[in-house]
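Deliverable D4.2, example record:
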Amino acid sequence: MRGLDKTPRSNRRLAKRFKTLNRISFCKYDKKFILKTSCLRKVGKDIHEFIPTDKSLIYRALINNGTTPYISINWIKFNPSPNYISRANLKNKGTAYYSCAPDISIIECCRDKLKTSNQREFELTVSKWKILNNLSFQIICNSKKAQLAGTDLDQFCIATNKKRRASLRKKHYRTYFLKAKFLSDQYAKGIINCENDYYISAVHANSILKPENKVDGIIYPSVQYFHKGFNYALAPRLFDNSHFRLIEVSHYKAVFDKRNIFKYPKLEILKSTTKFKDDVIIW
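Output generated by the structure prediction step:
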């Protein structure tokens, strides 16, 4: 696209650049071009320390093969080598996707099949994990659309921006703010026409979750749940260091409305277990 091959020399031009990129699909653009035009090679990390309590839980849902729930703990943890790009992972680069509640994890898990098929009824394996140790998170909080959902996301945004404003010159703060907002809008993107439309947030997640950055995960609003809940993109290395403990696995049935796939589904727990032996879930 004309003009996108040049790096903006002012915040005004940078704002126009981001407005254009938020409006278009990346399907017909080369990945190197997408990354270059995003101007996000140097974007600051806003890290929040998380101290767990007894109620600090995360959930992950997987659609069953047929009606039988999964029996392997290692299988349900995360996909170590996905053959696709998604919101917070590059191809063949694993990210552990989790949610703050079981219903959000189910809705997130089913959404692609709801959009691309006529299937409206699913059986899933939903795991519940307790957070054991302190974690450092990048919270994606600058999307105005996500802030309007009624969560406490705006409070994180206010605190982060206040800290940045105090440490940066006015012009530099404006540059930071524009980049942080654009990145948040990319994580909150709802219209996805191809894998490339995830590329900017996926590259960011892959970069920031590298061990040398000492960032354990990314918290971002759930697009599929109208930004009313939160998802976690966690570094797979955490599951080797006992940061989490599996405490329960449930076999769910989810039924979505035939006419309106965005309507809240009917959820039923068919059975649950807290019994595990080595890698095996004992149903």
